[in-house]
Amino acid sequence: MSIQYKRLHHIQICIPPQQEDIARDFYLNTLGFQEINKPEQLRNNGGFWLKVANIEVHIGVEKMGVPGKRHPAFEVVDIEEARKHLVKNNVPIQEDTQIDGYERFSFFDPFQNRIEFLSRTI
């Protein structure tokens, strides 16, 4: 028997306590994600849920630690338009080492969560 996977259901990104309004503004208005209903049973935990493309992004609340290498990567249709949009919204871009077949860069949300955008070049 082997595990048969269907799809990636969700990723979780954490923010510090009492920062939901700042996170909502960034993820909804700057990145253009859509807020979706969080189950009633989980609402007392804080945070909120989002959707982009066919991926759920769960914003959770916890005390923040040292940032690491962990990050979500979103493939975008037009990397240059994405870059221009972020710069226009005062989001600093971090140029990443390029890899064959992709153009990519990273940036940080207001809570120092690293996010990568990439686009196929071939």
From TrEMBL:
Pfam families per the UniProt record, alphabetical: Glyoxalase
Residue ranges occupied by any VOC domain in the UniProt entry: 7-120
Gene3D superfamilies (UniProt xref): 2,3-Dihydroxybiphenyl 1,2-Dioxygenase, domain 1
Regions that span the bilayer: none
InterPro entries for the chain: Glyas_Bleomycin-R_OHBP_Dase (IPR029068), Glyas_Fos-R_dOase_dom (IPR004360), VOC_core (IPR037523)
Signal peptide: none
Classification via SUPFAM superfamilies: Glyoxalase/Bleomycin resistance protein/Dihydroxybiphenyl dioxygenase (SSF54593)
Name of the protein this chain belongs to: Glyoxalase
